[in-house]
Amino acid sequence: QSKITWRMQTYAGAALAEHVVKPAIDMFNKIAGDRMQIELYYADQLVPTGELFRAMQRGTIDAVQSDDDSMASPTDVTVFGGYFPFASRYSLDVPVLFNKYGLNEIWDEEYSKVGVKHISAGAWDPCHFATKDPIRSLADLKGKRVFTFPTAGRFLSQFGVVPVTLPWEDIEVAMQTGELDGIAWSGITEDYTVGWADVTNYFLTNNISGAWAGSFFANQGRWNELPEDLQTLFRVCCDQSHYYRQWWYWGGEADLRVNGPKMELTSIPDEEWATVEDAAYKFWDEIAAESPTKARVVEIIKKYNADMQKAGRPYRYG
Amino acid sequence: MPRAIKSYVRAIDAMNRLIGRFAMYLIFVLVGVLLWSSISKTFFNPSLWTLETAQFVMVAYYILGGPYSIQMGSNVRMDLFYGSWSLKTKAWVDAFTVLFLMFYLGVLFYGAISSTAYSLGYFGLEPFQFFGDLVMTLVTEGPEAASAKLGYLERSSTAWRPFMWPIKTILCFGVFLMLLQCLAELFRDLGRLRGDDF
Amino acid sequence: MSYELIAIMMFAGMMLMLMTGQRVFGAIGFVGALAGMLLWGTGGSEIPFSAAMKLMKWYPLLTLPMFIFMGYVLSESKIADDLYRMFHVWMGPVKGGLAIGTIGLMVLISAMNGLSVAGMAIGATIALPELLRRGYDKTLVTGTIQAGSSLGILVPPSVVLVLYAMIARQPVGQLWLAGVVPGLLMATMFIIYIYLRARMQPELGPAMSPEDLAEYERISDHPLRLNYVVLALLVLVPLVVKLGVIEAKPAIGVALVGSVLAFVTRGIPAFYHDVFMREKYRLLFSGVLPLAIFAAMMVPFVNGWTSLVESSAIGAMTAFVAAILKGRMNKEVFETSVRSTLGISCMFMWIILAALGFGAIFDGLGAVKAIEDLFTTQLGLSPWMILILMQLSFIVMGTFLDDTAMLVIVAPLYVPLVGALGFDLIWYGVLYTITTQIAYMTPPFGYNLFLMRAMAPPEIGLKDIYVSIIPFAAVMVVALALVMIFPQIALWLPEYVYGK
Ligand code: NA
Ligand code: NA
């Protein structure tokens, strides 16, 4: 029996991938040994991120780690990938939504329709603004060209933000060439890890999402060819990656806010930020009206947040 | 050379020259878009669409201008040996190696067609069949039936979210023109070998 | 098939294809596409096209046609003529002065365009015939022009550094600034060399006699026209911004409106004053135009008002408008500039397209890993040894590859390795640029050598050009060594400007 070789491309550049995916793939390769090896490629390395979904579906790339939004997946759930505003507060909310509240099933249905295997989703970091100039009120956001996820960008444009999407690896450069005024793509851990803290000065502590989902996917045919134990091993390694990110982000966010030397923290007062939160609930309803599947997801998000609210501390404060 | 081939070469030269000369002026569109981008950014709110539009224009510029650039001889060759050959030797070698160039363009064309089919919502592996089907439906049953054949229309993953099929169609078209031009170059070289310059 | 074998086969296949003299993009694209179809497995045939989408998304490439257009407008419209005369008059009385002046001209030309070809064209058409007429030695002259024009891609703006930035994923702004000091250093070294050489062998570059310069001592027929609106703008706009009366952004608006007013009133006697002075002094003002073009492009960029690509469009536009205002933009110049820009841009873009496809397939087949492995573990070399070997291999490859081809084929292999070895990639960008320039002008084969041959008058043979280049190439090697030993020569300016 010959060795199976997969090519996998992640949305992340090398510096970030060192944390969000490489340990899991190294682990997979070590255990699978001569039976199977996965070669990991970084953002835009083999195909541009915009073509990633297509490449996986066609079989040019065997597996992908990305959010649904960045890889422009042609499904109804794309809009919820990346940062769907205010859908979650903590990184633990995400696995609960997927595993206990039924998002897994919806994702599975949607991706089966387009010939792709959705393996599992895990939480990413919160979504904060990192900017050149300080943001202390909503008015400061006006006219800022900000690198963000397409859906988050659509939502933020009502506050005068001008969302820009560029290849991930070019962001640091774009901050310096003036193509961008800021970044709303991650928490402070990533800002430091990937070098964005070096090209921005301020970090806004208010976020538009406490955490959202990144998933592992595979070409359906290639997935089906795997023996069951290797499928299980792959799932276990994905879970390892999800777990790593849980503690790495959670601890990193607090640590760098307190001890990070490169960025100054600013905040928008809670009362003012509440208008953004209210706008998000309106945005949810707009999205829900677009299709039955989207309505189902929004329904689940609403139910979940209502439950958390009722559960009280420590799930939700106030 | 047969008259049909000569008229093919002349027709392709004329068409690609015309298209190339149209593409040539896109440089001013590009300047215009980028200037508007800086003006709107300085004096009003930055525009959402300028950067991507500029990228689309740039693609049209070099893809549609490609065949004309071949006519002008702008594409560099490594002339370590080539430079010292006689015209006849050059024609011999070119007539052979242009087939390799056409192979590359063919692969590029297949990829372009496949990607354009995807941008129109076709997820299968037979893009040519999809387009054949689409055209047949359009002819026999009209535009409404044809548009029913389309699936999820691919959009760029940006907040502006433009559809991708227009630029991908331009890419298909440009690569196809490039193939036609290379075929014309092949005929020209074959003619030269028979002592028939045109 | 092993990674090593794939790497060797793809590379050898490409070299073989290039030797046939087929268009470079076809040679590279073919090998990539064939390897993709045979070795990739499912879907390998789609990679050459996905490279087109990659190319589209890489926004700094938008500057490429802009800078090429700018270069053509400058050289075709001959708005640099006065500039050349200025150096000519002021440097002429010195031994070797005309050659020194030519280097000065090249520095200014370099600041206005992104390729070395424009400098070469201007040097060959304006400076070369004049210097030969004045009895300068032909080997000194052609060497000066070739060496001087190589500054075009080192002094910002630089198209080659834009392409390098794309491959190395490094900030273009920093790379450009990193090229400034080494560029000026190299220019200074050229000047010192010419000066010393002309002192030792005065027959190589005779000084101009007072009789030769007499015509420049006369009061000029052409006045220096001082437009009151322009003068007022130059004084008042910076002043009110400095005093805080208005903000910088509205000030740009005022300046723009004022410029239109200045243009409209340029023929009305009440709005200007003509100053008649000696031709020699009038020419001093010819540097204002290039400076204005450079400032119109760089000031908004450095201040963060416009982005890199927007600035490149402003540069192209300014050069175009300047040529119109100077009355040099006739139908022929327009046609040549626009058409040549398309030709050269297409040449670049198609090579990049093919090379991106080749690179992705090369990478996806594991060949990049094989090369990294070869250098780092199998040969067991120290980082500096590897770096020097790479530079040497560039010079060898420069004998048969042109600059773009070299950049898009070789740089993607070397740059990640240089990064992995712990070297600074901004610094390496400068090393890379100087090295390739040396490669193009070292005999027996070099891109610049043949370009010079094509542009020079018939009495200058290829042998003269070979001889002429040796001392200048030696000066460049010394400059290269200096930048290697003292990285701060390159890194000081970007760190100073971008340092927080
Ligand atoms: Na330059
Ligand atoms: Na050489």
UniProtKB/TrEMBL annotation, chain B:
Keyword set, alphabetical order: Cell inner membrane, Cell membrane, Membrane, Transmembrane, Transmembrane helix, Transport
Chief location of this protein within or outside the cell: membrane
Residue span(s) of domain Tripartite ATP-independent periplasmic transporters DctQ component: 30-190
The UniProt record lists the keyword Cell membrane: yes
Bilayer topology annotation: Multi-pass membrane protein
Entries under InterPro entries matching the protein: DctQ, TRAP_DctQ
Subcellular location(s) of the protein: Cell inner membrane
TM region(s), chain numbering: 21-39, 51-70, 91-113, 163-184
Keyword Transmembrane helix: yes
Family to which the UniProt record says this protein belongs: Belongs to the TRAP transporter small permease family.
Subunit description: The complex comprises the extracytoplasmic solute receptor protein and the two transmembrane proteins.
Role description: Part of the tripartite ATP-independent periplasmic (TRAP) transport system.
Identification of the protein by name: TRAP transporter small permease protein
Organism: Phaeobacter inhibens
Gene name per UniProt: dctQ5
UniProtKB/TrEMBL annotation, chain C:
Subcellular location as annotated: Cell inner membrane
Stretches that traverse the bilayer: 24-43, 58-75, 87-109, 115-132, 144-167, 173-196, 226-245, 251-271, 283-302, 308-325, 337-361, 381-401, 413-434, 465-493
Origin superkingdom: Bacteria
Pfam families per UniProt: DctM (PF06808)
Domain TRAP C4-dicarboxylate transport system permease DctM subunit residue range list: 12-489
Keyword Membrane: yes
UniProt membrane topology term: Multi-pass membrane protein
Keyword Membrane tagged: yes
Keywords: Cell inner membrane, Cell membrane, Membrane, Transmembrane, Transmembrane helix, Transport
Function in brief: Part of the tripartite ATP-independent periplasmic (TRAP) transport system.
Protein's name according to its UniProt entry: TRAP transporter, subunit DctM
Naturally occurring in which organism (per UniProt): Phaeobacter inhibens
